[in-house]
Amino acid sequence: MVKRTFSFEFFPPKTPEGMDKLRATRDQLALLKPKFFSVTFGAGGSTRDHSLETVLDIQRAGYAAAPHLSCIGSTHDNIRAILQQYQTHGIRHIVALRGDLPSGMASTGEFRYANELVEFIRSETGDWFNIEVAAYPEYHPQARSARDDLLNFKRKVDAGANSAITQYFFNADAYFNFVDECAALGVTLPIVPGIMPISNFSQLARFSDACGAEIPRWMRKQLEGYSDDIESIRAFGLDVVTDLCERLLKAGAPGLHFYTMNQATLTTTIWQRLGL
Ligand SMILES: Cc1cc2nc3c(=O)[nH]c(=O)nc-3n(C[C@H](O)[C@H](O)[C@H](O)COP(=O)(O)OP(=O)(O)OC[C@H]3O[C@@H](n4cnc5c(N)ncnc54)[C@H](O)[C@@H]3O)c2cc1C
């Protein structure tokens, strides 16, 4: 059986206090022995320095770290410089993304899509990096059609991606369908489900609207019904997300990637309930 991969995602804190808090979260989550921690990269490079700082901090503590890298709004020279910086620090794992243009930024720069970034990373650095790309079981919101999105995902794989992490979803069938559709195209790399623990309904609804992740009506209704009752929201979220993870793993998902939102408690509870 292929070894499953479990990983945790952070966003880079902007303040020294935030960094201290993240260290505590990281040390708590490190007890679960994930394969790596990944660190997001602000659109248009807005958090570039914080991302690098956070990745190096994780590395210094003795854990594996994978920076995300988004290319929209960047030039080849910018990206080359970042890759060189990562290589200098011995980083060999990267999550390669297009990203989204921040409002007000007009120019897409020299990269249009993530497949171009993957191609560039391979042409500049050969096999140095283990490259992850993003996958969308419910399809990317800008995709012209489901088929188009699938073929665009394949472009990233053909350009040299090693594995993929999905956008979060609450509908396991969307994931199973996506993996089947990929297999039918000969795309068999590991596609690790991205898991979003639920702590706050309004925030989740906002994110989901923006990224095209569906909150099924039965979940939305129930979550809305809890109003400001955080305890009930969390308890319901833990049940739903643990069930989802269980179903995914039972069906052979090659691991789980948790969007931790820089918090340890919910991810740890789900982990323990899964008996991982
Ligand atoms: C695991 C994960 C981590 C993420 N981390 C970050 C992060 O750190 N920072 C950040 O800013 N954002 C992050 N995002 C969000 C991501 O940047 C957005 O979803 C973005 O809109 C798309 O990025 P992508 O790499 O999937 O783009 P792409 O794969 O380039 O796809 C974007 C859209 O373009 C279409 N497309 C792709 N290639 C082509 C082509 N060659 N021709 C025509 N159409 C094409 C696709 O169908 C899709 O609709 C993350 C998303 C995921 C799932």
From TrEMBL:
InterPro entries from the UniProt entry: FAD-linked_oxidoreductase-like, Mehydrof_redctse-like, MTHF_reductase_bac
Domain of life: Bacteria
TM region(s), chain numbering: none
Pfam family, one: MTHFR
Biological process annotations from GO: methionine biosynthetic process; tetrahydrofolate interconversion
EC numbers, comma separated: 1.5.1.54
Catalyzed reactions per annotation: (6S)-5-methyl-5,6,7,8-tetrahydrofolate + NAD(+) = (6R)-5,10-methylene-5,6,7,8-tetrahydrofolate + NADH + H(+)
Gene Ontology molecular function terms on file: FAD binding; methylenetetrahydrofolate reductase (NADH) activity
GO cellular component, one term: cytosol
Pathway: One-carbon metabolism; tetrahydrofolate interconversion; Amino-acid biosynthesis; L-methionine biosynthesis via de novo pathway
Cofactor (UniProt): FAD
Keywords: Amino-acid biosynthesis, FAD, Flavoprotein, Methionine biosynthesis, NAD, Oxidoreductase
Family: Belongs to the methylenetetrahydrofolate reductase family.
Protein name, per record: Methylenetetrahydrofolate reductase
Organism of provenance: Sulfuriferula multivorans
